[in-house]
Amino acid sequence: MSWADGFIAVDWGTTNRRAYLMDSGGKCSAEFDDGRGILSIARGEFEPAIDEIRERLGNRPLLLAGMVGSNRGWVEAPYVPCPAGVEELARGLVRIGDHVVIVPGVSLSNHRCDVMRGEEVQLVGAVASGEIPADCLVCHPGTHNKWVEVSGGRIATFRTVMTGELFSMLKHRSILSDLLAGRAKDGDSFREGVRKGLSGDGLTAELFETRARFLLGRLGRADGASLVSGLLIGEDVRIGLGTRGALRVIVMGRPQLTALYSAALKVAGVESEQKDGEGAFIAGARNIVERLQ
Amino acid sequence: MSWADGFIAVDWGTTNRRAYLMDSGGKCSAEFDDGRGILSIARGEFEPAIDEIRERLGNRPLLLAGMVGSNRGWVEAPYVPCPAGVEELARGLVRIGDHVVIVPGVSLSNHRCDVMRGEEVQLVGAVASGEIPADCLVCHPGTHNKWVEVSGGRIATFRTVMTGELFSMLKHRSILSDLLAGRAKDGDSFREGVRKGLSGDGLTAELFETRARFLLGRLGRADGASLVSGLLIGEDVRIGLGTRGALRVIVMGRPQLTALYSAALKVAGVESEQKDGEGAFIAGARNIVERLQ
Q1: Would you state the pLDDT for residue B289?
Q2: Based on the domain organization, do A262 and A286 belong to the same domain?
Q3: B254 and B285, same domain (yes or no)
Q4: Signed CA dihedral, A262, A266, A268, A274: sign only
Q5: With an 8 Å Cβ cutoff, is B274 touching chain A?
Q6: pLDDT band, very low/low/confident/very high, at B225 (cuts 50, 70, 90)
C-alpha cells in the first residue's frame, strides 16, 4: 500500500463524514457520505468505522480531517498555530502507522483565542488550486462560521461565529421553535433581519421580538425562519467585516448557506463570490499528501 | 364565596406556579409553589389543577396571572396595550364565572412589538405599595428579561431580551455545555464577560471564543458559567440602557439574578437598587382585586 497509488481523504465532522477515493493521478474517482459523524461513534469504535470506509472505497492509505482529530474524536491532532498553510499542516500531521494520517486543526492565541478543524484543508486547497487568491477574506459558513484572512497563501488569522449552532438551537429548543419550522430564504424578511443584525442594536432582544410580532399578528409563520436567519447572519457579517472598509469576500461552503451569506453581504454593500467547498477539500487533501512522499 | 373574605393569587408561569392565600385584611397567610407550570398541564386538565390549589389553600376566589392566560394556557386573556397600569389590567381581566379571573398580559405595538405576561402584576404592585417610584426604569430578569419604563405609575414601554432562555439553551444543548455546568457568580470572569457584552463587539463570536480559550488552556472550567453569563447580561444591559444617559435602575426579581444584573450595571457605571418580586406580586394582586369589588 503506497500513497502514490492513490488514497482516501475523509472530511469527518461532528454529525457527518464524507470520504473521497483519490486515484494515482490525483482525481476523485469515487465517494460517499453518511451520518457517521464522530458523535455517533463510541470511543474504541473508530477502527471498525475506518475498516468500513476501506470496505466501501478500497484498501488505501487514509488522510482524515475535521473533528476526528479533536479531543472528542479518534486520536487528538494538536492545533498548529497561525499563520498556517499547507506546509504547516503537513508538518503537523499525526501519523498512525504508515498509512493513516490525521490533519491538525489551526489555532489562534494572541489577544483573542480561536480554533478551527476541517475548514483549513479547504482553505489551503482553494489557494493551491488557484480557486481563491493568496490574499483574501474568506467567509466559511457552517455550524460555526469562520471569517478567515488568507495572506501569502496561509491562514493568517480568523474569527468564529456560532451562527449555525444558535439557529439550530433556536429552531429545536426555544420559544421560537414553532416560528422556525420553515426554510430560510432570501427575500424581504431575510433582508429586514440582516439590516437589524448589521445595526448591532441588540440581537438577543430582536430574537424575542420576532415572537412578539407573531403573537400580535405582525409576522406570518412562513417568514419566521427567514427573519431569524437574517438577524443571525446580519450579526455575523457585522462581526466578520468589523472595522474593515468595503472589500470583496469569498464565501465558501454548501451552496444553500453561501447564497444566504452572499445576499447578506450585498445588503451590507459588499461584493462576494461563492465557492463550493467540496472541490477545495479534495485539492487540499491532495496537496497535503504530496508533502508526505 | 366573596372576594372580600379573602382570595388566592396564583403566579402561574411556564415551568412553575406559586399560589398565595390572601386573607380579608389583604395579608398573605399561606402559600406554596410547585413545578406545575402550564407546560406540565394538558389541555382540559386545568380545572383539576385549580381544584388542587383550592384543596391546598381553601375554597376561595382565584386571581390567575402569567402564562396561564397565554394561548398555551387555560383561557387566553388578550393583551392590553401600553400604557397600562392597575386600572387597565383590572378592566382587561377575563372572568370565568364569578370567582375566577385571569389577568391580561401587556403588549407594545408601535415601531417595535413586545409582549409580557406575569411581570405586569409585580410592576403595578410595586408602584401601588410605594416600593418603586411612579417614574423609573425597571429591569426584571428571568427567562425573558424585561426593561420597563414606568411613567405616571403605568407601564409606558418595555423591551424584552432573551438572556435567560439563551443561557439555558447554551448550558443544556450546545458545544459550550461542559463549560457551563457551574453556577455563574460575580467576579473577574463575570465582569470580563460584562465588559465584552457592553462593548457590542459581537456576542455570537464571543460565545465561541470561550470554548476556544478553554481548549487552548486559557480559561478554567470553573469560570465558564460566569464568563458566559457576563457576556449575555452585558449585552442585555447594553440593550436595556440603549442611548439613555446615566441613571438609576431598579432590578426586580429573584435575588440570585438581581445580584448579577446589579453587578453588571455597576460595570456599566449605573447605580441600581434590588427588589424582590414576590412582595410586589402580592401587592399587585391585591390592588387588582380591590377594583373588582
Answers
A1: 96
A2: no
A3: no
A4: positive
A5: no
A6: very high
Q: For residue B155, is it within any domain?
A: no
Number of domains in chain A: 2
Q: What is the mean pLDDT of residues B264-279?
A: 95
**In this structure, what CATH number is given to the domain that contains residue B60?**
3.30.420.300
Whether A87 and A188 share a structural domain:
no
- Count CB neighbours of B113 within 10 A: 21
Task: Read off the pTM.
Answer: 0.95
Q: Residue B66's closest CA among B109, B106, B111? A: B106
Q: Which of A165, A201, A204 sits opposite B174 (nearest CB)?
A: A165
Question: The domain that contains B219 carries what CATH number?
Answer: 3.30.420.310
- ipTM here: 0.95
Give the tens place of pLDDT for each residue, B140-190: 999 999 999 999 999 999 999 999 999 999 999 999 999 999 999 999 999
Does B179 lie at the interface with A, CB-CB under 8 angstroms?
A: no
B39: its cell numbers: 407546560
| Residue B141 belongs to a domain | no
Residues B207 and B235 in one domain: yes
CA separation (Å) from A150 to A82, A118, A119, A127, B144? 10, 16, 12, 9, 40
Nearest by CB to B202, from A202, A209, A239: name it: A239
